[in-house]
Amino acid sequence: MDTYAIIKDGIVINIVDYDQDPGNPPPGFDDSCIAVLAGSSGPGWTYANGVLTAPQPYPSWVLVDNVWMASSPMPQDGKPYKWDESTLSWVEL
Q1: Cα(72)–Cα(52) distance, rounded to whole angstroms?
Q2: Where are the domains positioned within the chain?
Q3: Tens digits of per-residue pLDDT, 8-67?
Q4: What share of the chain is helix, strand, coil (3-state, %, to 5)?
Q5: Beta-carbon contacts of residue 60 (< 8 Å; ≥ 6 apart)
Q6: 53 closest CA partner among 87, 6, 18, 63
Q7: Which of 4, 45, 50, 73 is at 20 to 30 A from 11, Cα to Cα?
Q8: How do 46-48 and 62-64 pair as beta strands?
């Protein structure tokens, strides 16, 4: 059994375990849905051109090679940081 992302109108609407042909939607989903291997995706992800993409975490982040990137790299000094969108910078926790 594999885990599939159920997609409707390009948006992941559910994640299900399913053991049938992924080209057919699982029971409970209409014919406008498709099923693709989910990987680490979840509801709210988008699907286009065969690629699942996570939701944009912050308005300032840009998509690079299907990975959301901040405008500045997170410091790599072993301390915990979080992104502060108001200052567009990493702040130490």
Answers
A1: 24
A2: 1-55, 57-93
A3: 999 999 898 877 665 666 677 777 888 888 888 999 999 998 899 999 999 999 999 989
A4: 0, 45, 55
A5: 70, 71, 85, 88
A6: 63
A7: 73
A8: unpaired
